Each structure stands twice: as C-alpha cells, then as structure tokens.
Amino acid sequence: MNTIHRVIVIGGGLAAGKTAQALRDDGYQGAITLIAAERHLPYERPSLSKDYLAGKSSFDDALVHSADWYRDNDVVVREGTTATSIDTVGHVVRLDDDSSLPYDKLVLATGSTARHLSIEGADADGIHYLRTLEESDAIRKTFGAGKKLVIIGGGWIGLEVAAAARAASTTVTILEGGKLPLLKVLGAQVAQVFTDLHTAHQVDVRVDVKVEAITTADGRATGVRLAGGEIVSADAIVVGIGVVPEVGLALAAGLDVDNGVLVDASLRSNDPDVFAVGDIANQQHPILSHRVRVEHWASALNQPAAAVSALLGNDATYSELPYFYSDQYDLGCEYIGFVAPGADHHVVVRGSLADREFVAFWLDSDCCILAAMAVNVWDVLEEIKPLIVSHSPVDPERLIDPEIPYARL
C-alpha cells in the first residue's frame, strides 16, 4: 500500500467531523483537511429541528468538536469554502477560491440539500427550508402566539417543526399530500399515532391535499392555495418535502452514482482512493444483503470509523443497522432496521397504540423482522437487534406478547 500523507474530507457535518476523529483515533499522523462550505465548524443537524429549534440547547452543543480539538489534533478546517471539482486522476480537489489541494485519499461527506418547491410563488420571501443553522434560526423567529405557520409536508422534519412551533404557542397547519403523515415510512397503523398526537396538540393536520401555489403580497408569502381554490393563510411557510443527496461533485468526477454514491461494504467508491459516508453513501450492506442509503444521524456518526479503517488498509466493513430517532411533544421514538420501498411487509404491535407506548415490528412474508420502532419504550432495541440481524422467522403472536422476553424469541 502506498504511504498516505494527505487526506481530504469534503463536508461540514457530523460525518466529516467524525472522519477526522477516526483518522486520529486510528493513529494516522498525516495531513487532514476538511472542506466545509458553511462558515461553521462541523456540526450535527438533528437538533436543528429538535432541541436547538425549540430553544432548549445552544449551537455549541451541536458541534462535533470544539475549535480546540481541531487545533490540538492538527486538523485544518477550511470554513466557508466550497469544493468545485475533483480530479481523480491527478488526485487534486479544486476550490472556489481557484486554489487546489492534492490528496492521497479522499472522503466525501457532502450530505443532502432540501428539495425545493417548483410552483407559482415558490421564490417569495417567508418560505423556509431546514438544513442549516441559519435556516433553523429563521424558522424559530416565525414562532409565537398569534403567528400562523403553514408546514408543507408531513415527514419527520415537518412534524418536528410543528411540535417546536406549538410549544411556542404558534398556530400550525400541516399540509400533507398523502392519506396520513409518514404513511409511506410507517404504514397506516403507526402513522395514525403521529397524526393523532399532533391533532391532540391543536395542529390542523390536512391530508390528501394538493398544493397549487403560494399566494403573495409585495413579494412575501401570505398563504398556500390548494387545488379547488381554498387558501390557507400564513405568516410564514416551512417546506419539508424531502432532501436530495449532494452528489454533483462525485458525478462530475466520474464516480458511480445512483441514488447516492455507490460504495461497497467498506464505503469505498469505484475509485479505490475515494470513500463516501453519511447521506450520500449508497452502500452494499453486508447484513441486509442489498444496497441501502439512509439520511440518518446514526450513519453519519458511525460510518466514518469503518471507512477510515478501510482507507488505512484494514479489512473493515460497516454493518450497523440503520437507526434514527424523533422527539415530538411527550413522544420519543427510536427506529432500527430497514424496509425497502415497495417491499412486501405487515406490521404487528407489542403494547398500546392508544397510550402511545408500544413497539411496532415490520415483518416480511416469512415473518422475519425487517425493522422495529419503540415509542416511549426505552432500552429494548439492543434486545431486538439480534432478531433483525438473524433474519429468522418469528411467531408474531409470541412477538407481541409482553410477557415473553425478546431473548426467548
């Protein structure tokens, strides 16, 4: 293996910061440069729609590492700098200040960008998306008694923003195009729990709606026009209709891209000197035996250690199951596993949906557990994880029996 003197990490989120940490933890002593487009040290994004948005935590709490850590570990962070191209033949990254940096190994941690509306009025002032610190700050300023917030999209971001807004006494309306918020992710039975939760907190949840346009006055959004002509008035609008993996650099560099950067079990791309971690990594998962790309905090947290180990020449793979969590009002939930879009499955529940205290299981046609979500039930996922990894059939009746320990399944 050629000696590695220079590693460049492109990204300014959790995955980038953890890649730098993993390099030093594994004993790598060469140069490390992080290219961060935002004018901040790398930070975690979940709190932007949770505690930080609700005013319960500071931005410093979201930092992956302090400035002192980067200095003490001799890691250069180029804040406010954008990588414009990658020359994989010459092993050079070009930057937006017309400079360039050579590398021996490159890690892409470019994350995702929010999907934007493309309807009449979508460029008006007062329309907000949520991916950055500044966007979270701007959304928080729309909160307060007497203020009307309309949220387009009933996904995780939309629901978490709604919970934070209601905690600040904001009047909130959610506009969801499907039959229920989170329906495609959770299925009707569990999705209804989240709809009922928000309704109980006086959120006007409207489903099966089609958004036709943003109404404006003097260039500022004043509401949302629905199919049929009804206008839902708003002082501000938050759009949460998903994200798109930021793969432009990878694609232009000739890397294999299809719903993210295609990487192997070690998170290595088709170029042996380029790795991808976090939101953009479409990994051949060694446990699930198919490709997986998830936009979850846990991937950004844990993938870098495996990628760095492989980058340094070790036989390493990333085998953790996808995981995410959400906090809304008095509901906390954790989800582990993966249900492929369109996969045949059914849901069974241990506990009480009505009390919002349960564990839901997604089973395939052979009654193997694909995924599980614990809602206001804690410290059970580690017991459930082996059942998912084993991919062995379980008896659904025993699975939902609270008297039977998971270890006996």
Structural commentary:
- The protein has about 400 residues and is of the alpha/beta class.
- It has three domains: about 180 residues, FAD/NAD(P)-binding domain; about 120 residues, FAD/NAD(P)-binding domain (3-Layer(bba) Sandwich), CATH 3.50.50; about 80 residues, FAD/NAD-linked reductase, C-terminal dimerisation domain (Enolase-like, domain 1).
- It contains eleven helices and 26 strands.
- Strands 3-2-1-7-19 form a five-stranded parallel beta sheet. A five-stranded parallel beta sheet has the order 9-16-10-11-12.
- Strand 24 and strand 25 form a beta hairpin.
- Helix 1 runs parallel beside helix 9.
- The radius of gyration is 22 Å and the shape is globular.
- The termini are far apart.
- The model has no long low-confidence stretch (mean pLDDT about 95).
